[in-house]
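Comment thread on ticket #2218

A.B. wrote:
> Attaching the input chain for the structure job we discussed in standup.
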Amino acid sequence: VIPVCKMNPMCYVSYRTHRIDKWNQLKNIDFMKYLNELSYQVIGCAMEVYKNLGPGLFETVYEKALIHELTLAGIPVKSQVVVEVNYKGMNLSEGLRLDLLVDNQLVVELKSVEELKPVHHKQLLTYLKLMDKRLGLLINFNVADLMSGIKRIAN
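C.D. wrote:
> Ran it. Output below, let me know if you need it in another format.
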């Protein structure tokens, strides 16, 4: 067998395959950088909402305010996005909605509760899996310090 790779003489994979793999790795790194930057922007908008409204309001109030803040920042956002659930050919999507989908990439689940429970983390992780998304934010506005109420969850 003759080596075909210019990058490594011991490799029998084509140079083109190496280039494609390298390109996919770079695209993935760039995409994760983009997701990180997007999540920081969303957190900044959430902090602005919290600064103006404070804790103790209903989740829907924070949702509308955050949508407004994201729109002012020029960040595309959809609210109450239906999550498709198929179980053995049957559609079970009725009533299952995630709070915000930012730029069709970042799932944001909002809460206004005393404390985040493990079920809230699992709910967001399930949404990420069902929507085939990589990163989500769980934001609890009912806290003394908003940063302690923000959790990043990766799929």
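A.B. wrote:
> Thanks. Noting for the ticket: Residues 1-6, 12-16 have pLDDT under 50 and may be disordered.
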